[in-house]
Amino acid sequence: MSIDDEIKQVGMDILLSKHHRGTKKDIQHGNMSVRQHTISVARHSVLISRKLKIPCDRRALVRGALLHDFFLYDWHDKDHGNIFRLHGIHHPGIALKNAESEFPLSEIEKDIIRKHMWPLTIVPPVCREAWIVSMADKYCSLMETVRLHRKNCRRHQNR
Q1: Angle between helices 34-51 and 58-67 in degrees, nearest 10
Q2: Is 27 helix (H, G, I), strand (E, B) or coil?
Q3: Does position 30 have pLDDT exceeding 70, yes or no?
Q4: Distance between CA 20 and CA 25 in Å, rounded?
Q5: CA 140, CA 149: separation in Å to the nearest integer?
Q6: What is each CA distance from 106 to 21, 88, 110, 155, in whole angstroms?
Q7: CA-to-CA dists, residue 111 to 20, 38, 107, 130, angstroms
Q8: How many CA atoms lie within 13 A of 28 on its CB side?
Q9: Is the four-CA dihedral 58, 49, 34, 77 of positive or negative sign?
Q10: If 0-12 CB within 10 Å is exposed, 13-18 middle and 19+ buried, where does residue 106 land?
């Protein structure tokens, strides 16, 4: 099964949700939207798991990756005060609260969302899925910031 098919199979409810679709209006890094970023992190997480043959709960891996930045605000907006300055520290908790209010989450998915910003979140991930998403997120963020990413998420963006 292709990575895109796997993401669609386990995450279609997230991809079709009003709030996740709404994240395509907010920029994450460089010129990449939050929606595109989360899809890219999901793709890279599955790729890491496959290439390194890391056994894991792939459903939780994909869903956690799609929801890891579900904070639902423009973090570049200086009107948000402390949230703007401390976004890296606070947004995992905000994303988890938002995700829990909209989707049923497993403990693995919660750990992924809560700990994806380690070491800023201080407490490290406890499951391999959260480690994978954390590494994929850092890689994607770097590529987006220096604008070396490929916008390979367009197929999911408008759904």
Answers
A1: 160
A2: strand
A3: no
A4: 10
A5: 7
A6: 22, 23, 6, 27
A7: 19, 16, 6, 6
A8: 29
A9: positive
A10: middle
Q: Distance between terminal CA atoms of the chain?
A: 20
pTM confidence score: 0.84
Is residue 134 pLDDT above 70, yes or no?
yes
Give the confidence band of 135 by pLDDT, cuts at 50, 70, 90: very high
Return the amino acid letter for 74: D
pLDDT tens per residue, range 59-91: 999 999 999 999 767 655 666 545 555 655 678
Task: Extract the tokens encoding 39.
Answer: 């899809």
